[in-house]
Design a protein that fits this description.
508 residues, mainly alpha, Serine Threonine Protein Phosphatase 5, Tetratricopeptide repeat, 78% helix, elongated
Amino acid sequence: MTFFLLLLALQSPADWLAQAQKHFQQQQWSASREAARKALAIDPKLGDAHVLLGLVATVESKFAEAEAEFLQAVALQPANPRAHAYLGSTYLQRKKWDDAARSFEQVLKLDAGNLSAHYNLGLIALTRNQPAEALARFERVYRAAPNDVEALIGMLESQLLLKRAAEARQTAAMLGTLVDSRDPRLFQAATMLGLYGEYAAAIPLLERVRKAHPESYDAAYNLALAQYQASEYDRAAEELQALRTAEAYNLLGAVEEKRKRMGESFEALKKAAELDSRNEDFRYDHATAILLYREVKDAVASFEAAARDFPRSWRLRLGLGAAQYLAGNYDAAVQALLDAARIEPEARPVFRLLGLTYETAPAMQPEIAKAFAGYLKRRDDDAWAHYHYGAILSMRARAGEEVAQEAKTRLRRALELEPDLAVAHMEMGVLAQATGDVATAVQSLERAVKLRPDLATAHYRLGLAYQKIGEKEKSRAELALFQKLKAASEESERILVRESVVSSEPRR
């Protein structure tokens, strides 16, 4: 008998296992592993030794090794719920959701009241986007253990996903009574409420976290963000003014805008862009503020500089296109918008604005039309793009091209998607006028001005149509309205161009 076998023979497998467990409790991982292996050398069917080896591998983050050991354990001890639970937990670590679910279901077959198995099955249901199943699991745990904070957090997330706002607020209130202000889980619950739009419920929890952690930037910023979203602008401004980071100044710009303090808003957005010039959002927000509140030429310069720094940003090129358009640089505006469309071929705001530029840039009209044709192959659900392309084809049809039928098809599709789209009704009327169908023209144009009484061009066209059918009084009235609305219509277009930039901002 070799010395090693003699040494093993002096102790039983149970002795070695006891030593392994003692070493494990003392966090002596190598010694625990060695003793467990000695136990298995004597008795290879000792399932508890495999469990211990799996636990050692787990604390060392060797999850593949842990999985192998726990598989050995359940093969040797198929009726041991603890071994199945450890195996399921290892599968969770390795994101093997289906295997984990089977392991925890097996735990419940062996131990129907195992709350950890129900909780873990709730977590797995959330990963599978099954919030109703998850909620049932977490509620099972909560009924048996009303003070289980983790189960309540699981319930909260499930209720938020299911849009059960009242229940979520009630669960948040229960968490508030159970969790200490310094417990990270309170901040977790508050952040979760904010992510799902329950800002009013998040604020009291965040205020507690803020008071408990006065040094925490995250607590202060998230409280200010929730206050901003809950329209508590004065309180949000007070929090943000003390933070002095680029992120805080950027949010302060939005807050000051809501408080109608446009000068302060502009300065805050400028400060954010200066402090962090490598942040695309901050640069975009600052350039947009220049477009809204300062000289257009300065906005052009700001967007141009930012676009150079961020060559893959379609939003900055959208902003540049809008600024160039308002500055009267129409070819440059179209080029910027086409560049934006090449970077992001499905960006709706780009095509909404590109349609306005068609008549202003004759040399680039073929390229604009081609861009719309390609875009609509991918996005048949964009009513405004169908309208703009239909209007482009309508202009070409009036110039003699054989595209009138396709123009009608595009305009009809726009109205299928958005029946009250006044400009599409107007363009249908214009096309009908061009083909001599005066009755249809009158009907479409009347519909357009009913939907949009401020649509100057529709009044002009309707005046001409009334003239054709001998309605002279109506014609004079419509043409007079056109003259009255013309100047306002031009300003309305400028506002629309600016809004196309603002509407593409990422919302906070």
